[in-house]
């Protein structure tokens, strides 16, 4: 009973309820929360501390930034069930729509910065990647990870220049690349044509809302994409949605690092990922998750993680 009393005491402020609703939509920094709420950072920080102490929110430091997210689903899901029911009875709070509009502005600011970067660097994107870890080593490791079974229907999310399609498309039953950037897709079309992959398909689309049906892929690749995602868990879940039973998702990205300049100079939203974080994303998406390989070399380490959709079990009829 004391735990319940402490929990409800932590919620006894409209600002803290607004913070939880915002974190339900996406991870945010304290500064972004302050921007949406129209309050000072010190004041918002005090509210956040109360929510963290109650287990309703979590903080994660990346360089000079601190990102906030919801606490464990076991604790927050029953709370949101209750709040959602009350909203059905009483209607949405007036702050809800206003906060949603300001949150959309935060999303737009982030997306605009990334779009500017992609537009400026589309023509030498492969060169930028090569500055970190030898791309040939990464590509060889991806090939090893895919070698145990047919590629089947391949989807490359955030296809960029189409490199994954170029490498693994010839072995695929069908290959499709998705990218948000028109500049990248134009470059990818040129490179795929040069490689003779005229049957490969390219589509413009968002990693959070892929233009494909559930179960439409056997192999999905997120290659050097997740560190640009403002909502990495949502991006992984959307990629996993495409997998048919027995399908696999490969996430290829940087291990956690402290290279703060990559955030400001190269529009990285995340400074790499710890194994625990990516494995949690994959498992939360309903996949069996594991670490494939750590590739050290160059300035950064690249890790390959895999998630597999369990085979559908046949029901035994008595």
TrEMBL record:
Pfam families: HTH_5, Methyltransf_11. PANTHER family: METHYLTRANSFERASE (PTHR42912), N6-ADENOSINE-METHYLTRANSFERASE TMT1A (PTHR42912:SF93). InterPro entries: ArsR-like_HTH (IPR011991), HTH_ArsR_DNA-bd_dom (IPR001845), Methyltransf_11 (IPR013216), Methyltransf_Superfamily (IPR050508), SAM-dependent_MTases_sf (IPR029063), WH-like_DNA-bd_sf (IPR036388), WH_DNA-bd_sf (IPR036390). GO terms for molecular function: DNA-binding transcription factor activity; S-adenosylmethionine-dependent methyltransferase activity. The lineage of its organism: Bacteria, Pseudomonadati, Pseudomonadota, Alphaproteobacteria, Sphingomonadales. Residues 1-90 form the HTH arsR-type domain. This is ArsR family transcriptional regulator.
